[in-house]
Specification:
Blueprint: H1 12-24, E1 51-56, H2 63-79, E2 82-87, H3 91-103, E3 108-111, H4 116-128, E4 133-136, E5 151-154, H5 156-169, E6 174-179, H6 185-197, E7 201-206, H7 212-225, E8 231-234, H8 237-250, E9 255-259, H9 263-271, E10 277-279, H10 282-299, E11 310-313, E12 315-317, H11 323-330
Helix pairs in contact: 2-10, 3-4, 5-6, 7-8, 9-11
């Protein structure tokens, strides 16, 4: 759920053409949402005949969303689903992608709800068109109200509270929670959760996640300004690595902990540069979202009964268990 540099504002049709090559390399029966592929959606393509659009809010090339996509691709291959994965960090552009998928009459939509209000109308239009919709990653407090079939992801408040308790156990006294995207409900919920259980002082620090130099500089400046800060909490793996650099630049002794995981972060946990990570298992989110839509169509299943989310985290990654996770992180699935 990380932000990006300025995103392309093209429609699903043009985006799908650009992204389809990468997706089709790994997904059985993959087709672009153009309606031009032979047999797409009519059961004659040699696959299940089902077309699913996964529409996220992440940036192109973001390692976190690469893992979501890999999970979705694995489920699509297993289920012989034609999958299109598209994304835009701009909420209005993301909503347009949902509308484009609706107009193309896909068989299912999986969508992230990082900014639920901006997505409400587009999701309602998809549902009115008879298209099953599930949420993943973001929107645990919004998916039921918007009438979605299910939710696959982490309860960010629960994860934040778990991290806060861990900081207490480690003896921290003053934490700064670095928010890299204003208005993202999931990120705000993480920091609010930390504040609820952490016995020390917690304050939010807002940075521009699209500018890593700015992120590093702002964190370092905050540490120089307030030497009482002994804990930096970041909300994404790349920001944890930036925070490590910030601590060094500031000549400070603050510890760094984070939400989310990537291969470089695994190395940082192993070395002790980062204390621990709270992993929401993005690969699992993508996999379950696609598989859940397929199961709904083929067997009438509704994950969580349509009333409870399917939780993929929090899963703590520390130096004690890093050895069993490292190989999966290297494969890009953790």
């Amino acid at each position: 759920m990380t932000p990006a540099p300025a995103a392309r504002r093209s429609s699903l049709l043009s985006r799908a053409a650009a992204l389809a090559a990468a997706v089709c390399l790994t997904v059985t029966g993959c087709s672009v949402l153009t309606g031009s592929d032979s047999g797409a959606g009519d059961g004659t393509s040699g696959g299940s005949g089902m077309r699913i659009a996964l529409i996220a809010h992440g940036a192109e090339g973001d390692a976190f969303w690469d893992r979501v996509r890999k999970g979705a691709e694995a489920a699509a291959a297993k289920d012989s689903v034609d999958l299109t994965f598209v994304s835009d960090p701009d909420a209005a552009a993301q909503a347009k992608l949902v509308r484009d998928a609706t107009a193309d009459k896909v068989d299912g939509i999986a969508v992230t709800l990082a900014k639920p209000r901006a997505m409400r109308a587009a999701v309602a239009e998809a549902r009115a068109a008879g298209i099953p919709v599930v949420a993943l990653n973001s929107g645990i407090d919004a998916w039921r109200a918007q009438g979605l079939l299910g939710f696959y992801g982490q309860d960010e408040s629960v994860a934040g509270r778990a991290l806060g308790r861990e900081l207490d156990a480690r003896g921290a006294r003053h934490a700064v929670c670095v928010v890299h995207e204003r208005g993202n409900v999931a990120l705000e919920a993480r920091c609010a959760g930390v504040r609820k259980t952490f016995g020390g002082q917690t304050e939010n620090l807002y940075v521009d996640g699209a500018d890593m130099d700015q992120v590093t500089g702002v964190i370092a400046a905050k540490l120089r300004q307030d030497p009482s800060i002994d804990q930096v909490v970041t909300l994404g793996a790349q920001y944890a690595l930036a925070a490590v650099e910030s601590v060094e630049d500031a000549g400070d002794r603050a510890e760094v902990a984070t939400f989310d995981l990537n291969a470089d972060l695994v190395k940082a946990v192993r070395s002790g540069a980062v204390q621990f990570a709270v992993d929401q298992q993005p690969y699992l989110q993508g996999y379950l979202a696609v598989d859940g839509l397929w199961l709904h169509r083929t067997n009438g299943n509704v994950s969580g009964g349509g009333v409870e989310p399917v939780l993929t985290g929090p899963a703590f990654v520390t130096r004690k268990n890093i050895a069993g996770i490292e190989k999966f992180a290297a494969n890009g699935t953790r």
